[in-house]
Batch of 3 targets.
Target 1
Amino acid sequence: MLKLYWSPRSRSFTTLWLLEETEQPYERVLTDISTGAQKSPEFLAVNPMGKVPALKDGDVAIAESAAICAYVADRYSDAKLAPALDDAKRGKYLQWLFFAPSCIEPAILQAYTKLEIPPMSAAWGSTAQVFDVLEQALDKGPWLLGDTFSAADIAIGSGMNFAIRLFKMVPSRPALDRYLDACAARPAFQRAEKIAAG
Ligand SMILES: N[C@@H](CCC(=O)N[C@@H](CS)C(=O)NCC(=O)O)C(=O)O
C-alpha cells in the first residue's frame, strides 16, 4: 500500500489532497516536524533532505511535492489527474506542474521576505510577473487547463492556498480568489483539510 509521510500545517497538504483525489487506499505516517521526526534515521532513509512530504510506493521512495504529483497522476491514471502522453494538453500540464516549485514557490518566498533580486537573474522573474501570468492563465478557468482539472491544479492550488488563505503571505486577486474557491469546493480538498487539521 502507498505510504505518505506527512506533518500537519505543512506542504504535505498538496499530497494529502492528491491522494484523496485518487481514492487509492494509503497509509499516513505522521512525521511531525515540530518534534524533529523528519530528521530520524528512518525518515532520512526515505528522504535524505529531512523534509515532508515523502511517499513510498512499495520500494519506490519519492520526495518533492510536485514530483509526487507527477508520479501519482501517471501511476494511478484512473483518477484522470494527468492528460495522456499523446493528449494535446500534456505540454501545458507539465508546464504548470513545474511552474509550482520553480516559479510559484520562490515568488511566494520573495513576497514574504521582500528579498530584492533583479528579474533578469531570478529564474521566476519577479513575484508580480509570476502572479500576473497565473492570473491570465486562470482568466477562462475554472482550471489551469480550462475544463480539465489536473495534478497541476493540486500543486499550484495548494501552494496559493497556503500563501494567500492560510498564512496570508501574499495578497489575493479576483481570479485567484475564484480559483481557490473552486479548489476548496472539491470534496477531496475538504477531506485533506480535515486530515491536515489533525
Ligand atoms: N521542496 C519540498 C519542500 C518541503 C518542505 O519544505 N517541507 C517542510 C514543511 S512545509 C519541512 O519538512 N520542514 C522541516 C525541516 O526542514 O526540518 C517539497 O515541495 O516537497
Target 2
Amino acid sequence: MDMAREPVAVIGTGYVGLVTAAGFSQLGNEVWCVDIDAGKVAALRRGEVPIYEPGLAECIDSNRERLRFSTELAPALEHARLLFVAVGTPPTYSGDADLSAVQQVVAAMPYSDHHALVMKSTVPVGTGDAIKRSFAAAGKSGLAYVSCPEFLKEGSALQDFLHPDRVVVGDDGDWAGDAVVSLYAPLGTPVVRTTIPTAEMIKLASNAFLATKISFINEIANVCEETGADVLEVARGMGLDHRIGEHFLKAGIGYGGSCFPKDVSALKQLAGNTGYHFQLLTAVIEVNELQKRRVMAKLQKHLGSLVGRNIALLGLAFKAHTDDMREATSLVLSARLLAGGAQVRAYDPVAEKEARTLMAGVSFADSAQEALTDADACVIVTEWPEFAELDWKRVAEVMRGRVVIDGRNLLDPSLVRQVGLVYEGIGR
Ligand SMILES: NC(=O)c1ccc[n+]([C@@H]2O[C@H](COP(=O)([O-])OP(=O)(O)OC[C@H]3O[C@@H](n4cnc5c(N)ncnc54)[C@H](O)[C@@H]3O)[C@@H](O)[C@H]2O)c1
C-alpha cells in the first residue's frame, strides 16, 4: 500500500476534524469523515462548510471527490485503517477534560487487528494508556493506538495543517505509528516520535506555555500603564532575544477560545489530581480572568457610571479570522457591561450568528460604523484588520462620546487622537 496516500478516516468534523480531513484530501488521501451531528453531515454533503476558516471551503470544494461524509462509522472502518479522532473534549465543572465523546468513539471500535485510533483531540496525560487498557478488557487488544496531538490555530488552520512546525507521534513503535509518520511525510516536517504519555504532555505543556506567555506580557502591560513604558516596544525589545522569541507577546484583554482556557485548566487539574499544586498555572488563569475585566475599569475612568451608556463592541470572536465564540472575551465583557447598566451594540464580520445565541441583551449591527453611531465609547475586542482601516474622522463624527479602548493594541493611537478621540490601549 502507498502509505502516504492510504485512505484515512476522521471522526468528528469540527474545526480540527474538518481541517484535518481537508488537509489530507489535499495531500491526495481519500478521507472518510464521520460525525454524529446529522445536520452538519447533511450540510457537508451539500457542499456547505459549517465553520468559517480561511481557505477551507475552497480546499474542500477542490478535493470533493476524495471526501466522504457520513454519520455511520461502518464505511470508514471498511475503507480506512487509521481512524483520526477529533471530537470535542470540553471542560467539566471541575476543570478536568470531558472525555465522554472520546469514550463514545472508543466504545464503538470493533474487534480488529488492522485498525488504529489516532487521537487528535486534546486529552489528559494517561488517556491513551487508559484507552488501551479498556481495549484489552473488552478483548480488543488487536486495536492499535497512536497519540497525534493537533497544534493548528483557528484562523490559519489549513495553512498550519499543511506547514506545521512539527508533528508529534506518540505510539508503541508498531505499524500504526509508522503509518501515521508516513502519512505526514510529504509535509517534510520534523517528527517527534515518542511514547503516548509524552505526546499527550507535549500538547498540554505547549498550550500552557503559550498561555503563560500571554499572561506574562499582560502583567507587564499593566505595570507599563503605571510606569509610562510602552508594552509594544517592550515586547519588541524582548522578542528579538531568540531565547524569548517574538510570538505570543501581544498584550491585550486576555486569551479565550476553545483551547487555552480549557487546556491550561486541564493541566492544572491533572497535576492537582496527582497531588501536585501547579502554582504557576493558577496565576496564569487568574491573571487572564482579571485582564478581561480591566476594560471595565478603563471605561469607568472616562465615563463614570455606565448606566444608560451606549458601548460599541467591535469584534466578538475570540480572535480574528474565525467565527469561534468559545470562551471569547466578548462574552465576559458584554455580560459585565449589561450588569453595569450599559447598552451594548456589537459588530463582528463573521461571528454574529453564533454570538446571537450566546449574548442575550446585546444588539447587533451590520457594520462597525453602525455599531459606533451614537456610542459613548467603543472597545476593540477582536483584532479584525477592517477595524484598523476605519475612517476615524468619520467615526468621531458619528460617535456621541470620545472614548476608544483598543483591547488589542490594533490602532495607531496618533490617528485616533488626531480626530479628537480619547485613545486607550493596553500597556501603552
Ligand atoms: N479548535 C482548535 O483550535 C483546536 C486546536 C488543537 C486541538 N484541538 C482539540 O481538538 C479537539 C476537537 O476540537 P474542535 O475545536 O474541532 O471541536 P468541535 O466542537 O469544533 O468539533 C467536534 C466535532 O465532533 C463531533 N462529535 C462529537 N461526538 C462525536 C462522536 N461520538 N462521533 C463522531 N463525532 C462526534 C461533533 O458533532 C463536532 O462536529 C478538542 O479536543 C480540542 O481541544 C482544537
Target 3
Amino acid sequence: MTDYDIIIVGAGPAGSTVARSAAENGLNVLLLEKRQEIGVPVRCAEGVGKEKFNEIFKDIDKKWISAEVDGAKVYSPDKKTEIVLSGDKAGNEAGYVLNRKIFDKDLVKLATLAGSDLMVKTTATGLKKNKDQGTIELTMQNSDEIFTAETKILIGADGIESKIGNWAGMNTTLNLNELESCVQYQMTNIDFDERFCHFYLSYETIPGGYLWIFPKGKNVANIGLGVLSSLSKKSPKEYLDNFVNNNFPDGKIIEINAGGVPVGYPLKSAVNDNVMLVGDAARHVDPITGGGILNAMIGGLFATNIAIESINKKDYSVKTLKKYDELWKNDFGKTLHRNKKVQEKLLTTDDKTLNSIFHSMENYNITEANTKKLLYEIIKRNPKLLWDLKGLFI
Ligand SMILES: Cc1cc2nc3c(=O)[nH]c(=O)nc-3n(C[C@H](O)[C@H](O)[C@H](O)COP(=O)(O)OP(=O)(O)OC[C@H]3O[C@@H](n4cnc5c(N)ncnc54)[C@H](O)[C@@H]3O)c2cc1C
C-alpha cells in the first residue's frame, strides 16, 4: 500500500476531524474504520454544548441537529428539587442534541472530500516500529485480506476500546472503577419538557452515574443511564427499565444501545514516538457527564496541528509530539481533572446529603455562577461539607 503522512484508526468524531483537517492542510491521509457503516450503531445520548459546537463549525448543517434545548434540569434523588441551568451553564452536553447517524457520516464525507483516503470494514490489528525509517508499519485486516502500510504519524482515535496506545507502549489500562456502563432507549410517545435536557441523580438507584432524557423531537427522546460497574448491584438495563416503567408506561422503545464511557483521569500523556491518541482513546471524557464529543474534535484539531509541525520538521519523536499534551491540558484538560475530583466526591455522597444540598440551593440564581462560585455557595449553605469539599479548590 501507499505510504502515508498520517494514518488514523477510528472514524468517530475524533478521527474524522483529524482526517479532514490534515487533508485540508495537504497531508497524505488514510482513515480506517472497522465498522461497515460510519455512525451506527449510535452509542451516545448525542448532546453537545452549543457555544463550542458553533466555534468548531462555520457551517452547521441543520440535518446534524435533532433538537435544540434552552438548558438543563438536574433533579435531586427525591425529585423534590430541580436545578435549572441555562444553555451557557449547562456544560458540554446540553445545547444541541445531534443526529449522530448523519453527523458522523457527514464528518467522514467532509474528510474524504478534502482528500483523505478511507477504508471501512477495515480493522487495525497491530503495529511495528520501523527504526531505520523512523516510521510505523500498521497491519490491517479487511475480510480475509491482511495488509500493511507505512506512516509517519499514527493517530489512535479508536475510542474506549483503544488498542493503539497499548501497542505503542503506553499505559492505557482502564480499571473497573473507571468504566461507566450505559444503556439507552430511544423512545416515542413520551410526554416531557422538550425545552431541556434532563439529568437525574441518585446514589441508590443510579449508582455512580446519572440518568438522562435528551429530546430528539416531538415526544421522542434518548433515555438512558450510566452506572459505575464497580458500584452497581444490578445491570444498567434493570435500573433503566425501572425508571421507564414508572415514568413512561405508554412509551415505545424504537432503538436500544449499550456502551461504555471512560470516567477516570485523562491519560497523563497521550503521545509516544510517532503516535498520538485523541478522543475517548486518550480518555478525554468528562468524568461527571460522560460527554466526549466536543473534546474529541477539539483534541483532534490540536493533534493535527502538532502532526503538521512534526512532519514539516521531519521529527516524529515523543519530544516534538508532547506539544499536543500541552495543548489539550491547557484547554479542556484542567476541567477534566477538576471534574474527576468532583465526581470522586459525588461517589461518596449518599442520597440524603445530595437531597439536602439540592434543597439548600433552591433559590440560588445558578445562571450567574461558574463552578467555583457554585461550590463556594454550596459550602456557605452547607458548612458541614467544608471539610469534604475543600480539596476541590486546590
Ligand atoms: C451511552 C453513551 C452516551 C453518551 N452520550 C454523550 C453525550 O450526550 N454527549 C457527548 O459529548 N458524549 C457522549 N458520549 C461519549 C461519546 O459518545 C464519545 O466521547 C465520542 O463518541 C468519542 O469520539 P471518538 O471519536 O473518540 O470515539 P468513537 O466515537 O467511539 O469512535 C471510535 C471508532 O473507532 C473504531 N475502531 C475501534 N477500534 C478500531 C480498530 N482496531 N480498527 C479500526 N477502527 C476501530 C470504532 O468502530 C469507532 O467507530 C456517550 C457515550 C455513551 C456510551
